[in-house]
Design a protein that fits this description.
The protein has about 110 residues and is mostly helical. The protein has one domain. About 95% of the residues lie in helices and about 0% in strands. The radius of gyration is 44 Å and the shape is rod-shaped.
Length: about 110
């Protein structure tokens, strides 16, 4: 055989071999095996992240409840200012009556 013919046949053989290796490497069962291996390696870390996120969510919910409770308490204080002013007025009136009574008893 001549050199160019031998090179052509060698190229055909290597191309067929490369194609066979490519098909074998990308066969669906191999792909599924690789996917399974990836999941097996990744799952513990993902499970830990999920647990961390759930814990952080619980802590956040607790903090949100605390803030909402504090806001409600402040709003109630603001709303009760009317009652505080009323009590203040009644106290001033009681002090005035007491002073008037003391002044009246002192003049006797």
């Amino acid at each position: 055989m001549e050199e160019p013919e031998m090179q052509l046949k060698g190229k055909k053989v290597t191309d067929k071999f490369t194609e066979s290796v490519y098909v074998l490497a990308n066969e669906p069962s191999v792909a599924l095996y690789r996917l399974q291996e990836h999941v097996r390696r990744s799952l513990p870390e993902l499970a830990q992240h999920k647990a961390d996120m759930q814990r952080w969510e619980e802590q956040s919910q607790g903090a949100i409840y605390t803030v909402e409770y504090a806001c409600s308490a402040v709003k109630n204080l603001v709303d009760s200012s009317v009652y505080f002013r009323s009590v203040e007025g009644l106290l001033k009136q009681a002090i005035s009556i007491r002073d008037h009574m003391n002044a009246t008893q002192g003049h006797r």
